Amino acid sequence: MTDETIDDIMDATYCALCKHGYAELTMQDIAAESTKSKGTLHYHFEGKGDLLESFLEYLLDDFEERTETVPGETSVERLHEFLDELLTPSDAESADEFRTAILEIKAQSPYNAAYRERLTEFDRALRDRIATIVADGLESGEFRDDVDPDETADFLVTVFHGAQTRATAVDRSPERTRRYVHEYIDDVLRADGASGGDGVSTNRDHTEAGE
């Protein structure tokens, strides 16, 4: 497949997932969002499961490309910005629908080795990206000496997954979790006197009423 065809099919899969969710999604639904026919989809993919496996891999590649360079002049700023984007993505309009669809796919992972493998790769990529930022901050003296990059990354990824699940399952906005995470970075991780936290352009002063 050409890159153009891949992008078209994956964009269509994203739109169809947001509209229909995992359980009700069909190849025809995806074709309806694409410039390609249902026959073309079946030519390239055995079925919905095969296509969604490729979709998860596509999301992972896109994530790694988008986060290769995290904005910010310091490690503290980069960690704030990275987690800010995770918990409140810039494409917030379809975030709720997409969270629901991904949660449905996650629910299939205990029974689908391919889904589980792709989700494990994404989890590992998240942890590695955060651990690298924290390790850089330790080297520059921005984080406390007793901070462990791997343990910190594991904790923050767990918080992220929990926030996503709660947002979908019980309609709990990730906004409060987002604020707590920023406070955790500044109050627990950041070394005394280190710069880089207060200047980050994140909305960490939301009130309960404003969530």
Automatic annotation (TrEMBL):
Residues 192-211 are annotated as: Disordered. Keywords: DNA-binding, Repressor, Transcription, Transcription regulation. PROSITE patterns: HTH_TETR_2 (PS50977). InterPro entries: BetI_C, Homeodomain-like_sf, HTH-type_TetR-like_transc_reg, HTH_TetR, Tet_transcr_reg_TetR-rel_C_sf. Residues 26-45 bind DNA. PANTHER family: HTH-TYPE TRANSCRIPTIONAL REGULATOR BETI (PTHR30055:SF234), HTH-TYPE TRANSCRIPTIONAL REGULATOR RUTR (PTHR30055). This is DNA-binding transcriptional regulator, AcrR family. Residues 3-63 form the HTH tetR-type domain. It comes from Natrinema salaciae.
